[in-house]
Design a protein that fits this description.
Elements: E1 3-8, H1 15-26, E2 30-32, H2 33-43, H3 46-56, H4 63-74, E3 82-86, H5 92-101, E4 109-114, H6 117-126, E5 129-130, E6 151-152, H7 159-173, H8 175-180, E7 186-190, H9 195-207
Parallel strand pairs: 1-3, 1-4, 2-3, 4-7
Antiparallel strand pairs: 5-6
Helix pairs in contact: 1-9, 2-3, 4-5, 6-7
Amino acid sequence: MAVRLVILGPPGAGKGTQAERFARGRGVPRISTGDILREAVQAGTELGRASKALMDAGQLVSDEIVFGIVRERVVRPDANEGFVLDGFPRTVTQARLLDSVLKGAPPLVVVNIEIPESALVERLTTRRICANCGWNAVTGLTACARCGGPLVQRKDDGVEVVKERLRVYARETEPLVEFYESRPTFRCVDGDQTPDAVAADLAAAVASVGGVPA
């Protein structure tokens, strides 16, 4: 049975790391709207120019832009056996649009990664990414483990921008938990653990959903 997984959680909860790890283990695509948008910004496309100012300020890109990206991606042949959505949906409007696209498909498994705000601020203001390939660096490294590029702080990881991102998350994205929590395929995991522990809890949460393979 195909697993269509949505990973929710605030900025800094580790959604990207866990999505990539789970997708690789299952052999399904990880669909990251953040990666797609950053690639568009780097390429200077119309989408990139329209999104850059919002992303730098910690604001969300419009539902229309993001949904267009996801709608095109989830119908590609490599997503037939399942996928992991990272960074989408971020609003209830986006969640309803996603439901409309996946109508008749196996139900979404939704896992919410929970973590205290104090831990999030610490993570976000100290993390670094590769200036060349965008890889999220492991703490303690001085260069990218993938391409050797320099590590830098993301523009949206400054303290004030981080606080604004968390305010936006609370206002726009936390209602998603209420939208999904009544579904039998909704689970929560503790994100204030090591990445390995979170990955194990995530896998167990997915396996606990009836009809979904372990």
